[in-house]
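Many groups now describe folds with learned vocabularies. In that spirit, our science desk offers one protein's residues alongside their backbone shape tokens.
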Amino acid sequence: MSGKGKLLIIDDNEELLFAFKLYLNRHFSKIDTIRNPNQMLSKLEGEVYDVYMLDMNFKAGVNSGNEGLYWLKRIMEFDSNACVVLITAYGDVELAVKAMKEGAVDFVQKSWDENKILSTLLAAYKLRISKLEIRGLKEKQKQINHHINKNSQFVRGKSDAMKEVFRTLDKVAKTEANILLVGENGTGKELIAREIHLLSDRSDQVFVHLDLGALSESLFESELFGYKKGAFTDAKEDRMGRFELASGGTLFLDEIGNVPMHLQTKLLTAIQNKQIVPLGGNSSVDVDVRIVAATNSDLFEMVAKGTFREDLLYRLNTIAITLPPLRERIEDIPELADFFLQKYADLYKKKIVHFEKSAIKKLTQYTWPGNIREFQHIIEKSVILSNTEKLTASDILLGEGAMSTKRKTDSFNLTENEKLLIEQAIKHTGGNMSLAAKELGINRSTLYDKIKKYDL
């Protein structure tokens, strides 16, 4: 830590300033001193300091400390990340507490305890570095959020169904209410969740997405709440869970209906108490998250069957927003088509400028079982395969690769046929893994395992 930070000392005792500078010179890269605090602001305009040592009293016979508190406020106004150590000849605990509340990082008596002075200033410099690192990380996070949000634009659409969705969304986004998004797979629940985050007062903070449908049961608790080193065999170090990562921002829990019954109590407790206990931990961690959950399941039916806790449902269901399937918002298809056309034409550097009417007609007459996700996949594929400046009906490849009930190989090998069936299901659903898993009669985590197994 030595030899790096810049220190400014403000004290009316010239001998003390000389002694401080002489003693501390080898521990800081630069040390400036000021006897009159009125000169401080002009000094700050030309230099950035890491640590300040500020006297509490400057006028003879005055020892209230009010002068020091005043100049402390001025420094903090100039630099909110300033690390100020106040010095006084009077040991006043009440004054020390007041100074700390105003932003001072420490408080020392004006006695020549070299070790105390040095350790206090080096600790203040270390804190300064930490503050700047945190500020840098926050700036990076803002840039990352901006990049992600820029690439996650949502087409609101003109249909009555989507207008109703956004009427509700615009009312509740700035509140702290938990929101439950309900709709078929591929209807854009993640994009709506991001839109809620962007419109909220948490928009400058992190948006964390956890797909519960892709988790095996053994990973639920560690992914949600994190774990401590040694909590299990492979826990080589502490790891934050999604709740802690999302603290201050929004936590999007996709496929909430997949949470195992025995873990729903822990999830409910975390949401209610705003505290989590990492796996293998003994103490709770405070978290401040806004929950947006999503499901394609009927949670009320699951409650009736005893597979989902009613109290958890009502904690998540403060506001419910139902997203319509694409087949119920046909009037939005031309706008969606143009949006994805421009997106993928730019991505693949194609000079495609528009759709012919026949192409739009073909798009509007299809039922879209995979909804927006399937629609996006079809437009992307059409853009990739096209060599013209317009897309015609023949360029729109709908239903290709649909699942066949006939066996397409003479082999009776189970592994070969399972791989083929999975490939057909994924093609049939336009890459919609949730829908493909449903068609195959398995859950999503099992489907992902098989995709990895067969290197699909």
